Amino acid sequence: MNPTWNRFNITSVVLGFAFLYLPIVLLVIFSFNESKLVTVWAGFSTKWYVSLFSNSGLMNAAWVTIRVGLISATVATVLGTLAALTLTRYTRFRGRVLFTGMVFAPLVMPEVITGLSLLLLFVAVGLDRGFLTVTLAHITFSMCFVAVVVQSRLLTFDRSLEEAAMDLGAPPARTFFQITLPVILPAVISGWMLAFTLSLDDLVIASFTSGPGATTLPMKIYSQVRLGVTPEINAACTILIAIVAVGVLAASIVNKRREVQRQRDEQAAQRAEI
Predict the structure, then answer these.
(1) Does the pTM exceed 0.70?
(2) Engineering a disulfide at 208: which of 32, 73, 115, 179 sits with its beta carbon 3.0 to 4.6 angstroms away?
(3) Cβ neighbours, 10 Å, residue 101
(4) If DSSP codes are grouped into helix, strand and coil, which group holds residue 1?
(5) What is the pLDDT of residues 171-185, one digit of tens each?
């Protein structure tokens, strides 16, 4: 046996994974429970999923959550990518320190402070709380995560590719879309997935910035859980887990295929040079 994998290390790893994933496994299992009591197993059934899709309150909250997630993740990805480009390509400009601090502040700012400050801002400008304010709030706190992911890829980017394209007459915009963006696309996709997942998961900031008709699914679930967990909540959480898992798996497959294709292209280029 490998000396690094002794009995203590194996036990620690097993207990760690059990602590992280056993509650999720139990939630998924009891979402198929026949009984209304979530702690008593009475047989396999999918009736709670049928009941979930007929629950207008939960379905409306889910639709709001998906729309907010898609819009906020897309806008945050664009802004985060632009911020990452600015921080990596323009190392010296007036106000860089302030700009860097403003981009990355939501990473270390407590969610309660972020939510309260956004609430005060919306009240000060006279913007009624609703779908728009929730979307703006999610863009604000998720953009920094996209910037971190994309910036880490840009720091290792070979700029000679861009220089070669511009030497051949390509304008900066065309160079970005045909050279830079395809190379950093896996990082951009990863940033989008991270922003979308954070939007789906958010409860605190949405609680401060939402209004009538803009109740997100985490808020709806939290309000119902305070009165007791029901199998419908387990079913809704299971569907959320499935959506995130499928998205992460799809992104991993796409990135893996792009990496394999890139290695093949490099090998073909090396053979051509030989």
Answers:
(1) yes
(2) 115
(3) 9
(4) coil
(5) 888 888 888 888 888
